[in-house]
Amino acid sequence: TLFDGSNLNDWNRLGDANWRLQDGYVQADLGGKDSSFLVSKKSYKDFRVRAEFWVDNTANSGVFIRCTDANKITATNSYEVNIYDTRPDPSYGTGAIVNIAKVSPMPRAGGQWNTMDITAKGSQLTVLFNGVVTVNVQDSKYASGPIALQYGSGVVKFRKVDIKPL
């Protein structure tokens, strides 16, 4: 368990979002001009991570995996599994891996609790959004690194974040 709703001991904060514990989840709804993150203290290579999350209809969030720089998280130095229902280019919106694997049709996350299951084993990357496969792709750009939960805009909540090494 990386996050069970009780503490943020396994995470480092990056950026200036107002991450706070509340009713068994961590929430952010106010940040600066740049995205903010909770970054796992440990690094992972082959794993399955499962996160439950809630976002409002306009939120920009995501789960970043295999981050190569724990102090500067971007979609160009890690895999960004997107949570962004109103992304201008919806092909890389909710359920997609930005710049790697498009999603069509794009599922909607806003206004409800959802699950994101992400498996990374070698170059195989698979994303399940609420039990439906949205991405199944081969890419070997990033081999290992921490996991990061993103706050970009709107209201973002995470609860029950579990990881299982493979």
Task: List the SSEs and their pairings.
Blueprint: E1 11-14, E2 20-22, E3 25-28, E4 36-40, E5 47-55, E6 60-65, E7 79-83, E8 113-121, E9 124-129, E10 132-138, E11 148-153, E12 156-165
Antiparallel strand pairs: 1-4, 2-3, 3-12, 4-11, 5-8, 5-12, 6-7, 6-11, 8-9, 9-10
Oligomer type:
single chain
E-strand count: 12
Q: Please work out how many helical segments DSSP would assign.
A: 0
Mean pLDDT: 97
Tell me the Rg in angstroms. 14 Å
Reported for the largest beta sheet, the result is:
7 strands, antiparallel
Shape: globular
Q: Uncertain runs with pLDDT below 50, 5 residues or more?
A: none
Task: Provide a descriptive summary of the structure in words.
With 166 residues, this protein is mainly beta. Helices cover 0% and strands 45% of the residues. The strands form two sheets. It has a seven-stranded antiparallel sheet, with no helix packed on it. It has a five-stranded antiparallel sheet with strand order 1-4-11-6-7, with no helix packed on it. A hairpin with a 2-residue loop joins strand 2 and strand 3. The protein is globular and about 35 Å long. 43% of the residues are buried. The mean pLDDT is 97.
